[in-house]
Amino acid sequence: MFALYALATVVGAVAVLVVAIRSRRRSAPPPLPDAGPVPTFKVVALGSRGSGKTLLLASMYHQMQTPSGRSYFLTAPYEQVVLLNQWFTEVADTSRAWPAGTSVGETREFVFTVRTRAPSGALHTVMNIGYLEYAGGLLTDAQAPGSTGQAELLQRIDSAHALVGIIDGYRVRQCLDGQYEGQMRLQQSLTAMINLMMLVSCPITFVITKWDILRDIDVDEEARLRSVRKYLMSNNGFRDLVQAHSPHRVVRLIPVSAVGPDFTELDAEGRIAKLPDGEMHPTNVDAPLSAVVPDVFEQVERSLDKAALHAALDQVRRQTRLGPVGALAELGTFVLNAAGKVLGPLGGQAAGFVGDAALELLKAGRDRSADPLAHLDRRLGEVDRTIEEFRLARRKVLRDFQSRIDVLEGRLPSSRLSGED
Amino acid sequence: MAPSPTGWPFLIAAGRHRDYSILLAPEFLVQDLDYGFLDEVVKPGTGQPQVVDVHTRAGRRLTVVSATHPLTPADAAETHDEHGRPMRLLYGFVCVHRIVEPDRADLEAAFAVALDAYRRFLRDEDSPVVTAGQPFTLRSAVIRHPEPVGARAADQAFGARPQWPARVGVPAIAAADGAFGARPQWPARVGVLAIVAAVALTVTLVLWLRPQPGVPQPCPTVTVGAVPCTPTATFACPGGGVRRIGC
Fold it and tell me: Which domain of life is it from (chain A) (predicted)?
């Protein structure tokens, strides 16, 4: 008897709770867009020891911590900002040596928050980017018994939204100069990366670091990149990887320099030395992070059923039943469900973000969105100006990501890899 | 009288082209293949020794005292790697007891052994071996019965006051947890307490909401058809009992 009372009480409580939640959902206004957590895209940079992972990270943050013509900028937890600035300062100081290499114990994940300032002056958080920093030896060397770092790195690679493969420009330089040491080290690095990258299903961006020391290959940057690309594609493993992945996902080859062309030279021993009066002008360091979201969504589009996607986009245009916010959320939910494997867990309020990203980044969304979006924006304005402002700002950021990559591809067509080479 | 406490030296370092690896580890850990944790808990410092309490993968509870030494011309012919970066030695000693305050002499003893191991490594970087470190008598003050504490920076060691941070706190659980940062773990006691509280709350609610005994009221009457079907719903009768609708 007592058990029956208990059961009845629990059922009643659940019923009351359900009714309360349902009525609250009906009456409550949409949540403030900036109140909750935002989606997080996880990025892992694969690169051997000395390939320039840490310098790229420091320079990338230094350049992206202010808008500099973009609609967005990055922030990070303050202790990480201190560390990144410390590394950058150490690099920039021509009277000091390069920073020491990263040890296994210094492995850490940096969390960059993409923020934007709306015309009203309000600051909005758009998304997070997790970026793993680790010792290159974890990728290439056998680990000590009892060490867990390598296993955890592999786990991170497996769950990453995008991989950045760091190709050491210094090794490329050595290879092009016919040095055996360079060929051996580049092969070792490529083998380690390719082995892991063959198994992933996320976009891949190869980054050639230390681009500045390759400047004398050709005056024209595109011609220079074409030469390096041709050399890399002559490597069987690299070519096979590109051929295997490029029909299904984006594979890029981006030349970057964390310090720029006016900061270093090769000394008599063939080492990279800082110029006494060197000035830092980093190049393309923002491109790898800018490519993450557009590349993920290009892959999403490839994986989606076209008819279903068009139907979902039409639903957003009509947005008769759910209203504009609900229609976008429904589009986001549709994309999340249909391309869950590509997107993986994003966390935060993913549906709204994905809905906006689908409209801005999917070709089908862009083709259909000009007029309907304006109409949608007017309707959103009726719902809540704060939401409207946030969504417009977020879409501007997504457009800027895409624009950055479009500009790069326009300037350096060889930066998009395909198996046709 | 208890025997003097002992420490075992270790070294983690990178070479001219080879990345950081463990080059010297306590003999008893090498024998049991249980020294990999050193890679993950020993981090480069800014001059002050670091003291970290850890659990190894095999369940050993140890204290690791470490320091960082930038390579100098007196140590090796080359002090920078092939990328022009300064090379440094992460060295120190391991103790089965808690270290209250590391003694400079103990770190010097560990450094001497570590430097020998490093010079051997530099002679052939491509074939690194892990040297088994032998125990030496410690001068550092120890607590023989471990207590569950986190790491402590030896901020008063060597008579020098640290500039910043004054104390470095690395929880033992985080240190043992590996390279990718601490994962907060709730103590089991909290979970047990939560369950007990939930059960107690449920029982209280049930007893509070239970109707007073009275005259049993009739259950609702439902006509059941003759078509074969499966039970679909139950109702609790106000006076007790359950009526099932269906068949």
Answer: Bacteria
Check CB contact of A210 with chain B, cutoff 8 Å: no
Number of domains in chain A: 2
Phi-psi region of B181 (alpha: psi -120 to 50; beta: other; left: phi over 0): left
Q: Which one of A228, A257, A289 terminates a domain?
A: A289
A100 with B87: Cβ contact below 8 A: yes
**Total residue length of chain B:** 247
Chain B residues within an 8 Å CB radius of A141: 18-19, 21
Give the SS3 label for residue B36. coil
pLDDT band at A133 (very low <50, low <70, confident <90, very high): confident
Cross-chain Cβ contact B209/A5 below 8 Å:
yes
Residues of B in contact with A13 (CB under 8 A): 205
Dihedral (CA of A221, A223, A225, A227) sign: negative
| DSSP at A65 | T
pLDDT at B179: 31
Is B236 part of a structural domain of the chain?
no
Share of chain B above pLDDT 70, in %: 57
Q: Which two structure tokens, joined as six digits, stand for A420? A: 């046709």
* Residue whose tokens read 């891949």: A204
Q: What does the DSSP assignment read for B64-122?
A: EEEEEEE--TTT-S--B-TTSPBPEEEEEEEESSEEEE--HHHHHHHHHHHHHHHHHHH
In a domain, B242, yes or no: no
For an interface test with A, give the residue of B31, B37, B66, B82 to mutate (most A CBs within 10 A).
B82
| Residue in A104, A109, A150, A189 to test binding to B, most B beta-carbons within 10 Å | A104
**What does the alpha-carbon distance between residue B180 and residue B186 come to, in Å, rounded to a whole number?**
18
